[in-house]
Design a protein that fits this description.
This protein is of the alpha/beta class. Among the domains are: 264 residues, no CATH class; 145 residues, no CATH class. 50% of the residues lie in helices and 9% in strands. The chain is globular. 59% of the residues are buried.
Length: 837
């Protein structure tokens, strides 16, 4: 096997690593390189950050009995008044929740504080064993958790209350036989509402830039003064008071950084750094209290906005950045035209912003959550391209600056997403493809031709539908319209196949009864009986998922509030309703809660196909032969496994297989359509794995697709690894046909593809990949993303992780460093089909 150094064609990222370059391209300033290298030299393992937890706890203890939105605002103010304020060397964009430089994760005890002691032990053990998901926890951190946080939050957090409120059957699906072990889920189905205070979210950062806190506060004060009715004084007044306090909290935090910079400037001996500190002081004294005067103001205010959002709540998938090339464009354009800004300086400011993002990681106390988010998944998605509210192409020069700013640094931050539509300019699509060919898996691509009609089907006006932002893995949000923040639950298709074949039981959970008793397959004489059992198991899973979701929605408003997110949201602020309230539909808002498929969509299709083909059509296997082979995990049954592996597979243009996949998807869509939420709103069905298809596979026995027990499941709507043999366009056609159901409940679906750099080399290769994306756009698939990397490079990184420590790969809706992934996740990426353009 050739080493990567001997390959004829490398991606830009591979070439930079092989040549020992400090960056992929030369558009990275020395300042940015120093900051980046300082973050990386601080070690791979992040530190736990308890400051927010301590100050929130202090405040919430003092405000018990008050309206929760008001309590939250007071906790934010107390926190920003007391957090340490630090500015480090080379920093231009300031703001952090602690006093150290480097990767860190905030703990949210109101979410899952009952798990803190178990987490301490798990973090300590993982660190001692040198595990890749280890987190540094100091002796002082442990003391604070044991003496300050855990005694108050044990039994008071959302997780404990949620589990107690679940009906028996739903609790059984989630936690199995050991329902007392609330820290680890069974993965028969998966619940995320205990893993995050909010689903991924997009703040309308542009509103803060335009109005400043001064404008938002003044409006709240005027509305509060106008309230007269008893109902308004009890329902609306606490919200408006919370808005005013929240504005004060963020303004206080920024002012403290201004004062810190002024004090540091007074003793700074370097004239250059002194000027930078004085500029920081001036900027932080002005924003975000006031409307932004410049691009420099706008970048700093935007960073304060996303930092403050992290202080407010644990946002799953993190706080997304919205359409940066739209809301930053007026400031960029004005400063460029006035000669106050250059493209190089704007790029350096973006690099400072990306490196700040790089230091914040989402830490999960739940082992289940951590296992599904390998490499510390992040989704601070920056959206570029797409269309304007008037339906014109939205790309501008800032779109290209943002795209180029993500190419040079050897980091996966930010999570960049390009919106593509039928009239996307050739120049922009060409630039997007060239960036993908760098090999860092960025940007991911979202299809306006699917997403805009999706919103129109839900009654959204055209202008608003055109203005969506990408969020999370590859979902979308309307920042001022969508209201749903409750973490969803998810379908694992692997166990559904297993429960279909084992009368509702799961082998790797000691034959525990999770699903329905649908009978012994040995008595089934037609594929229709298999399908009936599969459908019954699926619908029962969906039923319990929706029970979980309804339970979480009813409880959340007792445990969480989001005054900042709410005051930045047009519908919520107009109604004076906190977004964490789900007892009522917010007038003018849109509730698009969802169910995810976290793994095994193609695994299930291929398993059903193998059963139909080998048992009922070709009669090459009996039920006894297949079931016995599955039970012993193929041991001594290799001939049977080869029959299963060589049975027809999804992704190769077989229409009957695509139709079977379509009917499988239809089960979920029909069920959610026929069972709307109590407020009358629908539940979306999406297929988005993050990396949960890996732990989902660990609990799933061998499947008729030929997969061994414990191995990862298929991910997204992509075919089973290595089983699509006819090229990317045929594969895309199969995925489109299997999901082509005219149903407004059908949401986002994830597609991964992998190319060797040689397959799309040069301008000819760029044009081929552009054609593939145009074809994908015409098929109206929601999403696609690419890994462009040599297999030998991945193998070399496994052997020499230090040399390849900065090798970035695309995983699901995010990218991460390959060497920081578990061996199973690395194997899953290696096993993905290598397409030929």
């Amino acid at each position: 096997m050739n080493s990567p150094e001997k390959l004829n064609v490398y991606s830009a990222q591979e070439a930079a690593l092989i040549e020992g370059k400090r960056s992929v391209f030369e558009n990275v300033s020395e300042r940015a390189l120093r900051l980046f290298e300082r973050v990386r030299s601080a070690g791979l393992q992040p530190r736990i950050s308890l400051e927010r937890a301590v100050y929130f706890t202090e405040s919430l203890k003092e405000t018990e009995g008050q309206p929760i939105v008001l309590r939250w605002a007071k906790a934010l103010l107390h926190t920003t008044q007391n957090l340490p304020v630090c500015i480090f060397a080379d920093e231009l964009i300031v703001g952090r929740p602690n006093d150290f430089f480097g990767k860190h994760g905030i703990i949210y005890p109101e979410l899952d504080g009952s798990l803190m002691l178990e987490a301490v032990e798990a973090f300590r053990k993982a660190h001692a064993e040198g595990k890749k998901d280890a987190v540094i926890i100091t002796d002082e951190d442990e003391r604070v958790i044991r003496d300050v946080l855990f005694p108050y939050w044990n039994g008071r957090d959302f997780t404990t209350s949620f589990i107690q409120a679940l009906p028996e059957e739903a609790r059984n699906y989630t936690y199995g036989a050991d329902k007392s072990n609330i820290s680890r889920q069974s993965m028969a189905i998966m619940c995320t509402s205990t893993m995050r205070s909010s689903q991924n979210w997009v703040i309308d950062h542009g509103k803060l830039l335009r109005l400043g806190l001064k404008g938002i506060r003044a409006e709240a004060q005027a509305r509060l003064a106008e309230l007269t009715s008893p109902f308004d004084l009890t329902q609306k007044a606490p919200f408006l008071e919370a808005v005013i306090i929240t504005c004060d909290a963020l303004s206080t935090w920024a002012r403290r950084f201004s004062e810190k910079a002024t004090a540091m400037a007074a003793t700074e001996t370097s004239a250059e750094r002194k000027a930078e500190l004085l500029e920081i002081a001036d900027v932080c004294a002005w924003v975000p209290e006031n409307p932004c005067r410049s691009f420099r103001d706008a970048i700093q205010a935007q960073w304060f906005s996303q930092c403050f959002s992290r202080l407010e709540e644990m946002i799953g998938g993190d706080i997304n950045q919205g359409r940066m090339d739209q809301y930053l464009w007026p400031y960029y354009q004005a400063d460029i035209e006035a000669g106050r800004l250059t493209e190089e300086k704007a790029t350096e400011l973006f690099h400072c912003l990306w490196i700040n993002m790089m230091q914040y990681l989402q830490l999960n106390l739940s082992p289940t959550a951590a296992a599904g988010r390998e490499g510390f998944s992040h989704h601070e998605t920056v959206t570029i391209g797409g269309q304007t509210r008037e339906g014109e192409d939205a790309t501008n020069e800032l779109s290209y600056v943002l795209l180029e700013s993500t190419r040079g640094l050897r980091t996966s931050y930010p999570e960049l997403s390009a919106r593509i539509h039928s009239n996307t300019p050739e120049r922009f699509l060409h630039a997007v493809v060239e960036a993908n060919k760098d090999g860092k898996g960025s940007p991911k691509i979202i299809n306006d031709e699917y997403v805009v009609p999706f919103y129109l089907s839900h009654g959204v006006g055209m202008a608003d539908a055109l203005d969506y932002a990408v969020s999370g893995c590859m979902e979308s949000r309307l920042p001022n319209i969508e209201t749903h923040k409750t973490g969803n639950s998810a379908v694992n298709y692997g166990p559904i196949i297993e429960m279909t074949l084992r009368d509702g039981r799961m082998k790797l959970w000691n034959d525990h009864q999770f699903g329905l008793r649908t009978g012994d397959p040995r008595s089934w004489t037609s594929f229709d009986q298999v399908w009936a059992a599969f459908k019954a198991q699926t619908e029962n899973v969906l039923k319990n998922i929706m029970i979980q979701g309804d339970t979480a929605r009813k409880l959340k408003s007792r445990y969480f509030a989001a005054p900042y997110a709410s005051m930045m949201h047009d519908a919520a602020s107009k109604a004076c309703m906190d977004l964490q309230r789900h007892d009522e539909v917010i007038p003018g808002g849109l509730d698009l809660s969802c169910i995810d498929g976290i793994g095994g969509f193609a695994t299930a299709i291929d398993s059903l196909v193998a059963i139909r083909t080998l048992i009922f059509e070709q009669k090459k296997l009996t039920w006894d032969e297949l079931l016995d082979a599955l039970e012993c995990n193929w041991e001594g049954k290799e001939a049977i496994r080869q029959l299963c592996l060589n049975a027809p597979k999804f992704g190769n243009g077989d229409e009957w297989i695509e139709l079977l996949g379509k009917e499988m998807y239809r089960i979920s869509l029909d069920y959610t359509r026929n069972n709307p939420k109590s407020n009358g709103t629908p539940t979306m069905v999406r297929i988005i794995p993050i990396t949960f298809h890996v732990p989902a596979g660990r609990v799933t026995m061998a499947t008729p697709s030929g997969r061994p027990a414990g191995e990862y499941l298929s991910e997204g709507i992509s075919p089973t690894h290595g089983m699509d043999m006819k090229g990317p366009t045929v594969t895309m056609n199969s995925m489109a046909k299997a999901t082509a159901i005219a149903c407004k409940e059908k949401g986002a679906n994830l597609i991964n593809m992998k190319f060797a750099p040689a397959n799309i080399a040069g301008e000819t290769g760029t044009r081929r990949l552009m054609q593939i994306i145009r074809h994908w756009c015409n098929l109206k698939l929601w999403h696609v993303q690419f890994n462009v990397i040599n297999r030998d490079t991945l193998l070399a990184a496994q052997k020499d992780p230090e040399k390849y420590r900065d090798l970035v790969v695309r995983i699901a809706g995010y990218c991460a460093y390959f060497v920081e992934l578990t061996p199973m996740q690395q194997a899953e990426i290696l096993a993905r089909t290598e397409e030929h353009a």
